[in-house]
Amino acid sequence: MPTPSITNFTSSRFALTGFPGLEIYYPWISIPFSVIYMTVFLGNCIVLHVIRTEPSLHQPMFYFLAMLALTDMCMGLSTVHTVLGILWGFIQEISLDACIAQSYFIHGLSFMESSVLLAMSFDRYIAICNPLRYSSILTNDKIMKIGVAILCRSSMLIPPVIIRLKFLNYCRPHFLSHSFCLHQDLIRMACGDIHFNSIYGLALVISNLLLDSVLILMSYILILHTVLSIASEEERLKSLQTCVSHISAVLVFYIPIIGLTMVHRFGKHLSPLVHVLMGNIYILFPPLMNPIIYSIKTQQIRARMQRLFLRGP
């Protein structure tokens, strides 16, 4: 599959990057990626179905899990057309408007996932540190308000920096680093004044991803302090086991983000293939792993899935 030449571009077209040097293997590479996307959609749909149809799962912890599954499914939907489109040979480039829209959804959904993970850590903190007031604190009304706050935080803070991308002049080679669009990729190709995007983008990362990670860490420090004060070792282990799924989801989300940030910041000398791989891990690893983690580690989800597949609803 030939790589489009930069001379074929207009000022509003950008070349997507698949797997450099592996173009002849795209039909084979598309098979595992198609399986991954199908697993993402099917796995998260099953989690949502199980939570909706099982009355015993109508609890705050599982409402937050449903938010996480919905966010992961939307993340898959936001990138599937460009990632598989390149591998299947349907597309090689993307317009500026489509690129801006895709970057809005990718970054917005990342912030949303971070916010949901923070809400889940708050849920675990209340459940372990203040169990007697758990049901009175996390009422359905409170959960709905938290959900609306997450949606507003994730969708309303990003437009200023994303909209400005439309009015920048892109005079550098129009080759994206990934098979999807990211804000930092477009900024790299701009040759106008990007101070606003750089400063505002950094502020968004600090006020969302960094702040959320710090608050999640603080919640687990408080949880650990409470658990260690429990006399019974069996009760300590039982309390910690309720956090294993969430801790795994946090690691699955933040480690790829840190890796991709390091590659973008310090990996300019690395092969383009490394950038592509890290980008795909960042996009696909959390949506793929979260349903697996929660179906294995959460007894209620696992039991309901076993009944669903073995004996029917």
UniProtKB/TrEMBL annotation:
Localisation: Cell membrane; Membrane
CDD domains for this protein: 7tmA_OR51-like (cd15222)
UniProt keyword terms in alphabetical order: Cell membrane, G-protein coupled receptor, Membrane, Olfaction, Receptor, Sensory transduction, Transducer, Transmembrane, Transmembrane helix
Signal peptide: none
TM helices/strands, residue ranges: 25-51, 63-91, 103-122, 143-163, 199-223, 244-267, 273-296
A GO molecular function held by the record: G protein-coupled receptor activity
Chief place where the protein resides: membrane
Its membrane topology: Multi-pass membrane protein
A GO CC annotation given for this chain: plasma membrane
One GO-annotated biological process of the protein: cellular response to lipid
Cited InterPro entries: GPCR_Rhodpsn, GPCR_Rhodpsn_7TM, Olfact_rcpt, OR51/52/56-like
Domain G-protein coupled receptors family 1 profile: 43-294
Gene3D superfamilies: Rhodopsin 7-helix transmembrane proteins
Record-stated family: Belongs to the G-protein coupled receptor 1 family.
This protein's name: Olfactory receptor
Organism classification: Eukaryota, Metazoa, Chordata, Craniata, Vertebrata
Primary gene name: LOC103732096
